[in-house]
Specification:
Blueprint: E1 4-9, E2 17-23, E3 27-33, E4 39-43, E5 57-59, E6 62-64, E7 71-73, E8 89-95, E9 98-102
Antiparallel strand pairs: 1-9, 2-3, 3-4, 4-8, 5-6, 6-7, 8-9
């Protein structure tokens, strides 16, 4: 069963930016906003060397890790080929201008 938590207003996250939510159970979760105002949430650690994905560059539905340029799909947490690996993704949604996260 999911437990939805209201995080912030969409406008609190810059387009092509992120916001980090600290959780006791899952650690840091990065919530991303795309140029199309879609929201995605993944564990804030790249599967390669644990780089902070929240500090990466958002493009389309991907983020590029700031450490070694791995591209991570925001909807699944999967690294884009030729890289292999995955970071945990979390359900996120936008309702009435508010960002919600399921943990």
């Amino acid at each position: 069963m999911s437990d939805w938590k209201k995080i912030c207003a969409l406008t609190d996250i810059p387009q092509l930016g992120s916001r980090v939510v600290k959780t006791a159970k899952h650690g840091d979760i990065a919530i991303f906003r795309t140029s199309e105002d879609e929201v995605f949430a993944v564990h804030d650690k790249c599967p390669h060397k644990q780089g902070p994905l929240s500090q990466g560059i958002v493009h389309g539905k991907q983020v590029t890790c700031p450490l070694h340029s791995w591209k991570i799909n925001l909807d699944s947490g999967e690294a884009q080929a030729p890289d292999v690996g995955c970071t945990k993704s979390f359900a996120a949604k936008l309702e009435n201008g508010e960002v919600w996260l399921s943990v």
